[in-house]
Amino acid sequence: MSDYKNIIGKTIKLVSSNLDNTQAEGQIWYNSTDGKFRDVIVSEAWSSGGNMINTRAYHASAGSVTSGLVFGGSGVSTYPNPITLTEEYNGSGFAAGGAMNVALAGLNGSGTQTAALAFGGFKPPSNTTADNTEEYNGSSWTAGGALGTGRFFLASGKSATQTAGLAFGGNPGYKTNTEEYDGSSWTAGGALNQGRNQFDGAGTQTAGLAIGGQHSPPFRQLTDVEEYDGSSWTSVTGIPTATEDNSASGLQTAALNYGGSAPSATANSFVYNGSTWASTPSMANARQNGAGTGTGSSSALATGGGPPSNGRQITEEYNKSANVITASAWASGGNMTEAKSNVADGGTVTAAVAGAGQKNNPDSTPTASNEYDGTSWTAGNAVPAGYSSVTGATGTQTALITGGKGSGDTGTFEYDGTNWTAGGALGTGRYQGKNLGTQTAAVYCGGRVSPPTLNNVEEYNGSSWTAGTGMPIAIRNSGGYGIQTAGTVVSGFQGPSSPPVSPASSASRGVLGFDYDGTNWTTGTSSLIGGQGGGAAGTQTVAIFMAGENPSISAGSSINTSQRYDGTSYTTDAALARTRATNFGITSSRTAAVGNAAAVFGGTDPAATPNDTAATEEYSVGTTALNIKVISTS
What we know:
Distance between the termini: 22 Å
Strand content: 35-45%
Number of strands: 59
Radius of gyration: 27 Å
């Protein structure tokens, strides 16, 4: 009888610790330390990725799970609303890319993050059917040759290159047209057997795949699948469930189809091996009119889609791998002893303090402080005065409260872990500013008196405040992180009055960032999503930031997306479970680099009644580890 080595081609290894790389897949080993046989097995699952910067549906995508691209689509407010916005994905979050030259929705695309192709759709004015083609080089879009037949809700060979593209089907009507792109112009290819629109495809110019869609009369959602050989289409095995508005990616012999309408938004996911379809784990979020990309059937990136018709920011990754992939996430922690917003925050995830604040906006100004041990909150001693709209700064559970609810508030209070005592008075009384640094080396930036917003800066030495260099523009309700000699203020309400001083893309709240070296301010990196009343923690090289309130973005979508900063740029990260604003607390702390953990607490949650919340959420960074299993010897 054949033994294990003859069958598998490997011996059973004797080791003192588990194997630690993907070469271990299919290998059985005996761990002499714990006395167990082990193996690595392949698993498959969808997991959450970092939110997109922008809400969108009816958009297009290209690239891979670790180097993806999304572009165009229907944006915020109501459908349809074609946009030019592009975003780049790095495997965990999104950063802004170059804008398209023409706003397009209902388009499709292919290629890679640095060599992408976009084509078709509809465009302003009046949602005209588009024949536009654009090419992306990793930073900017340029016009390419026009489609022979303008159309929207068409499909693409998703793995086709920028110089060998494939477009087929679409609307108006239920087109059978196929076109091939050579890097400069489109030419006619073989016609689909089944005319269709609102569907997606996979494969390349010479090995394409058309999946699902809709047709009429009579109106019906399709299971129909066809394969393209570079000249003609052949009907093959259909998908298990009739679906339109679906997303697809991969190759003709290794494809994935996910989401869509069947007949309403679905989380279904199916894999194709070139002859048959099989179910894979479903997505966490049912969606239609989203976009998908990926290079095969082992990984995919699904973005956006509805409902609602203008889309969402949510992203999911599919991975079939010997690794177990755990995405970065925010999870519920213990509730504070009372719900409040406008809190002063300090400490670390396992030793945090939340001081003063505002309760049931704006009914009262609680004096109680709360302390967190990483699991639960306990009530601490009261702040001497009922301050709200305050800010805190420390790297430990000793804290500092500055400013308060009122134009003339100059109060400062210091916390020693047990009691609050009065510190030196601010030179200029104000509230809604931002404190950075520690209890003995803090800097208080901006804020407001009623009504102006200020650019004033003051520095604290542990006993008194002195004037520092003013910020380039007036800011209140900003995010901030770092220390007195290396601090950053970002986003917030920017400008002495409405409208704020900020780029037009930030809508009603600013995105600008400014860095402080203890003497001078310089323009820093702008955040991806503007807002006010947000929170931040970390240093100038590693930080995490939540923008806060931005009424111009529908459904409060700006206030549950976290942004990670690496010293150069922001990328989106895991979404908070709840929306919150109005100066909620955050700690990791502000003076230490955000590594694997952070916590947010309090603030105003538009979905809560009353709006102020006591909820805490804790952040954990994503991990990747081999899927090692014990082999039973019984």
